[in-house]
Design brief:
Length: 438
């Protein structure tokens, strides 16, 4: 943002508009990665930022609602590029749960945690398009919906044997079937296309590379970008070579290398971390350390918490014969994410929250902690979940950094997140399109 060019006749801003809000006297962290601006102000007109910068350059229009935020910090809203909406109630996943009420409840939970947009990755039903269309006509008061609609896997492929996942994705056995499914999907105009490419450590059927390649090509022909759930290095590499837009998880079977880095950079393939998804594979095998954290309990009911600490639940987690491998997969994911980022591969922010025991909102903050542990600075994490993630979506003219013209999707904090990313939990209030939603 060209901050030096900011002095603007802001008193003109409100004329002819419905609603003007002025935020004043906060420290602005705009998501660009530049230095924070102390004593900042922001003018929001009909949900969009009209000006942001030093407060003495941001005059309050006469009829504006002025909010004094002395001592507070403002950062961009968190964009989660990998979630799953609507299928879970408490700890049960079932497509029957996919109702307007359940999707909206989850979008409101996200918003309570400062997550202002979520890309739902391939497990949605047609209702999602109606909800998205309604949001895009106006100013949403809950997290913004992006969707990959109905994703793809092979016949009886991963994850169709997971509880509540049968019938959720397309199961295609040939390039011709992939094309046919794409003809059905394309008119709905999903934001992305999703493929699950995994055998779940040899326990499930993985879609063959040539069919995935056919899906990527068919999507591209329709103007869609494809994201793939991957686990193995070999799949990341093979699909990046075929023009994959994003690896929707980290490579976890081995370290990434220069060959993958060069392929991803050459083809513009993005990497999403979803580190907290790995945490979820083992953290509930013992009573989780955050079960009584008020930041967790504010959105997770007592029944669910009791289940998570019950003997039966713990025993079930401990009975997974692959459990000893999971912490290593997290460590590999962390190392690989940082290595790709440092090498210049584009990295967006993502958690895979939404499925059972992957708690929307809370998990986005855990993801930030795991990124910090992997060596990302707070400023990098903030830029990744705002600027980078908006660019991933192709919405960088509307979302991401807190600058003129963008929607006012932002989080007000009482503590400085640049000092410690865990301070992103000190949420005072949340705005989406200028609507105060918390
Ligand atoms: Zn997922």
């Amino acid at each position: 943002m060209p901050r030096k060019l900011l002095p603007i006749l802001l008193t003109m801003a409100a004329i002819g508009h419905g609603e003007t809000i002025v935020l004043r006297n906060f420290t602005l962290i705009d998501g660009s990665g530049g230095a924070a601006i102390p004593k900042a102000g922001m003018v929001i007109v009909d949900g969009r930022i009209q000006a942001a910068g030093p407060v003495d350059q941001v005059a309050a229009p006469k009829d504006a609602k002025v909010v004094d935020l002395s001592g507070k910090y403002v950062m961009p809203g968190i964009i989660n590029l990998h979630g799953h909406l609507g299928n879970v109630v408490d700890l049960t996943q079932d497509p029957k749960n996919f109702t307007r009420a359940n999707v909206e409840a989850q979008l409101k939970t996200y918003a309570q945690y400062g997550v202002t947009a979520v890309l739902s990755m391939g497990s949605d039903q047609p209702l999602i398009y109606d909800l998205r269309a309604a949001q895009r006509k106006g100013r949403p008061a809950m997290a913004r919906i992006f969707t990959a609609g109905k994703g793809f896997t092979g016949p009886a492929g991963y994850p169709t044997s997971a509880p509540g996942m049968k019938g959720v994705p397309y199961e295609v056995s040939s390039a011709a079937e992939a094309l046919k499914a794409m003809e059905e999907l394309a008119p709905k105009n999903p934001d992305f296309v999703k493929i699950w490419v995994d055998d779940h450590l040899g326990k499930e059927k993985k879609i063959p590379t040539e069919i995935s390649a056919a899906i990527i090509a068919a999507a591209k022909k329709k103007g869609f970008r494809t994201c793939a759930h991957i686990f193995y290095y070999a799949d990341a590499k093979a699909l990046a070579e075929k023009g994959l837009y994003a690896c929707a998880h980290s490579v976890r079977d081995r370290d990434v290398d220069d060959a993958l880095i060069q392929t991803m950079k050459k083809n513009g393939t993005w990497q999403l971390g979803t580190l907290v998804r790995e945490l979820s594979t083992f953290v509930f095998s013992k009573p989780a350390p955050f079960l009584n954290d008020p930041f967790f309990t504010m959105s997770v009911n007592k029944g669910v918490r009791d289940t998570l600490s019950s003997d039966a639940y713990l025993k079930k987690q401990q009975g997974d014969k692959d459990l000893p491998k999971y912490p290593g997969f997290l460590a590999t994911a962390q190392k690989n994410l940082k290595k790709l980022y440092d090498a210049g591969v584009r990295v967006g922010f993502a958690t895979d929250s939404g499925p059972p025991a992957r708690f929307s909102g809370f998990f986005e903050h855990k993801e930030m902690e795991l990124m910090a542990q992997a060596g990302f600075t707070p400023a990098q994490i903030i830029s990744i979940f705002s600027k980078n993630s908006a660019e991933f979506l192709g919405w960088q003219k509307d979302l991401g950094t807190l600058e003129k013209g963008h929607w006012a999707d932002l989080v007000v904090l009482t503590k400085n997140p640049l000092a410690d990313i865990r301070n992103a939990q000190s949420i005072d209030s949340v705005y989406i399109a200028g609507n105060k939603v918390r």
